[in-house]
Design goal:
This protein is α+β, with helices and mostly antiparallel strands. The protein contains 22 helices and 13 strands. Among the domains are: about 110 residues, Butyryl-Coa Dehydrogenase, subunit A, domain 1 (Orthogonal Bundle), CATH 1.10.540; about 140 residues, Butyryl-CoA Dehydrogenase, subunit A, domain 2; about 170 residues, Up-down Bundle (Butyryl-CoA Dehydrogenase, subunit A, domain 3), CATH 1.20.140. Strand 12 and strand 13 form a beta hairpin. The longest helix is centred in the middle third of the chain and has 31 residues. The chain is globular, with a radius of gyration of 27 Å.
Length: about 675
């Protein structure tokens, strides 16, 4: 990160330099160097993060979080208008050209992650246009689709991504929409044969998109028989550009109001004998000749399908990243509010919420957990970026590793985020229920993370199969992936622990042994299951297999954090980061009594409470400064979480800025229906 960019970023945080008395008090107890801490953490972000952050911040009229209770059409107008203005600016600066989208993944990542800090709807709109529509054309198309890619990147074409159907989500192979080739006209004919075949929940479809990428079952005629060739992707126009109405044979509608993200126009689309050119087929892995012959270098339908889907799995990577980030955003809001809010106390001056041990436990333990998740997710994003150019190379095992990691991260991070955001809302009392706290919007956004890109329980099964396959390799003496190296510990009983609770290496080894023990325990239970392996895999999901997957996730995040610590040069910064990791250790150990009582012994296990309380006291001195280490713009912190800690002033400003807040209601006379009316 350049010195110039760092200065610009600090200028964005200028609110911190107008401190309230509460902020001065909090910073007076801090023990680490803020600038050094920021440098260490920000180096884990995508390379272009701050350039795109600056690009976004320069634009005026960013949709304001206070509009989250606006009407649906107003939200959609704002998000679409802003995304067009933003993309034009980013295209001009070279961040979203076809070359950048294809080769410099950091540019795309930076735009999405930076935008997520400002507004969730526009972030999602950006993801639909670039991460789904443009990326699919790039990854699954060929040279004949290059113009579609250019038009999508420059926003000459607004696109959408049609995979999910009314009756199919996670089971992509089961989708029903058909694309049948007609060699007499050299066209594919799209049909939605049933109600469940209607494409549904498609972002940007209802009111915005000109074109769509549609996944359908491809059929050709072979020897007079209609033969299915599996799921393929097509890029096609859906609206007349002169009138913005759908073409004949295409019916488009709105999915209506949602729990959140109403700034995104999710829609449905139904096809009836809709004809598209043969060239609409995205033909990187398979094609249909003019005379109707199906051609592919990959004979296995399963492998073709896997190749097509593997390039799209980045969604889970970014869900992990965004869930960890918005959890830390929520925690920062709640922690900053607690540094101002006072309740009860033994003297005339009430006690700060942040000084109550229970409040510290509620927030600090979760802050430590999601700080660990945040680093794990940042590493996963970089792994994904590095692997994408060689995604389909023969013998590339990293794709399988990333699939397993993203599956577990998406599940466990989004689950934890749901409870964390809600806990932050409750920790702010009645004011947490206000729209202006932003918790309602953040929680709705994260609920989406727990829903799309695959059911999280199903995704943990994907991760479990990866681990079980690793166990088979280990038993045969074969090399296992880096994230499964703990299997070499081959634990069949909980290990004895006689070490130091302050020793990160020893505690990390204990968690690796736990992952190995739980993996072997699950494998043993499956092998001995009376109903057989397949039935056992289903019946053991609630306990043995889920525990195995959770331990894998914990071990990956811990090892990522340990590697991060080796990059931190400043001793004061490294010390405070170590305290976060230690608190995460203690909390997880205390929450998993089944394993750790056996590993530590009951007397050692009971000592965890003392270590947790000790960590809370130390973090209390530094927690406000730790919230400033995170790269969040102040406008994304709502009324309660601004860095200057002037909570009540800003809260009132937000409320009074709302239209009509002090005006007499138009229906005021109803208040006097049963009394003497006053004029």
């Amino acid at each position: 990160m350049s010195h110039e960019i760092a200065l610009k970023r600090l200028n964005m945080l200028k609110g911190h330099f107008r401190p309230s008395k509460d902020l001065k008090r909090e910073l007076s107890t801090s023990t680490f160097n803020l600038a050094k801490a920021q440098e260490s953490l920000w180096n884990t972000l995508p390379a272009n993060y701050f350039e795109t952050f600056e690009c976004i911040s320069e634009l005026h009229g960013i949709p304001d979080p206070s509009l989250y209770n606006a009407e649906k059409d107003e939200l959609r107008k704002d998000s679409n208008e802003f995304i067009i203005r933003l993309t034009n600016k980013m295209f001009e600066k070279g961040f979203t050209t076809p070359e950048k989208i294809a080769e410099n993944i950091d540019a795309f990542n930076s735009g999405m992650i930076s935008l997520g800090s400002f507004n969730f709807a526009t972030c999602t709109r950006y993801l639909v246009q670039y991460g789904l529509y443009c990326k699919t054309i790039k990854n699954l198309g060929t040279e004949r689709h290059h113009q579609e890619l250019i038009d999508g990147c420059s926003l000459k074409t607004l696109g959408c991504f049609g995979l999910t159907e009314m009756g199919h989500g996670s089971n992509v192979r089961g989708i029903e929409i058909t694309a049948t080739y007609d060699k007499t006209t050299k066209e594919f004919i799209l049909n939605s044969p049933t109600k469940t075949a209607i494409k549904f929940w498609i972002g940007a479809l209802a009111k915005s998109a000109h074109n769509a990428v549609i996944f359908a079952q491809l059929y050709i005629n072979e020897n007079g028989q209609k033969v299915r060739k599996g799921v393929h992707a097509f890029v096609l126009p859906i609206r007349d550009r002169m009138t913005h109405t759908s073409f004949p044979g295409v019916e488009i509608g709105d999915c209506g109001y949602k729990k959140g993200l109403n700034g995104i126009d999710n829609g449905w689309i139904k096809f009836e004998d809709y004809r598209i050119p043969r060239e609409s087929l995205l033909n990187r892995f398979a094609d249909v000749t003019e005379d109707g012959v199906y051609q592919t270098a990959i004979e296995s339908e399963g492998k073709r399908f896997g190749n097509s889907m593997s390039s799209l799995s980045g969604g889970r990577v970014f869900i992990s990243r965004m869930s960890s980030e918005i959890s830390l955003q929520s925690l920062s809001i709640a922690i900053r509010y607690a540094a101002v809010r006072r309740q009860f106390g033994p003297s005339d001056e009430e006690t700060l919420l942040l000084d109550y041990p229970l409040h510290q436990y509620r927030l600090f333990t979760r802050f430590a957990e999601h700080f660990v998740h945040y680093l794990g997710a940042n590493r996963l994003v970089k792994m994904w970026d590095k692997n994408l150019p060689k995604l389909l190379d023969e013998g590339n095992e990293q794709t399988e590793v990333i699939h397993a990691l993203s599956s577990s991260m998406k599940a466990f991070v989004s689950w934890s985020s749901q409870s964390t955001i809600d806990e932050c809302r409750k920790a702010c009392g009645g004011h947490g229920y206000s729209f202006y706290s932003l918790f309602a919007n953040i929680l709705n956004f994260n609920d989406l993370h727990a829903t799309w890109e695959g059911d999280s329980h199903v995704l943990t099964m994907q991760n479990q199969k990866f681990i079980l396959n690793g166990i088979r390799k280990a038993l045969k003496g074969k090399k296992v992936p880096e994230t499964l190296e703990y299997l070499s510990l081959a634990q069949t009983t909980p290990p004895a622990f006689k070490g130091d609770f302050e020793n990160i290496d020893e505690l990390a080894k204990l968690f690796a042994q736990r992952a190995s023990f739980l993996a072997n325990k699950a494998a043993k239970a499956l092998n001995e299951y009376e109903g057989g392996f397949e039935q056992g895999f289903l019946d053991l999901q609630s306990f043995e297999l889920k525990d195995m997957s959770s331990a894998y996730h914990d071990n990956y995040c811990i090892e990522t954090f340990r590697a991060f610590l080796t990059t931190v040069d400043d001793e004061s910064v490294r010390f405070i980061f170590e305290k976060l990791l230690l608190l995460n250790f203690y909390t997880k150990m205390h929450n998993d009594g089944n394993f750790f009582v056996a590993a530590l012994g009951l007397s050692q296990f009971e000592k965890l409470k003392k270590h947790i309380n000790k960590s809370l006291k130390h973090l209390r001195k530094n927690i406000i400064l730790l919230t400033q280490v995170l790269p969040f713009p102040e406008r994304s912190m709502g009324a309660l979480g601004h860095g200057d800690l002037q909570v009540y002033d800003r809260y009132l400003q937000h409320i009074k800025a709302c239209k009509g807040v002090t005006e007499r209601a138009s229906w005021w006379k109803l208040a006097y229906t049963n009394s003497e009316q006053k004029n």
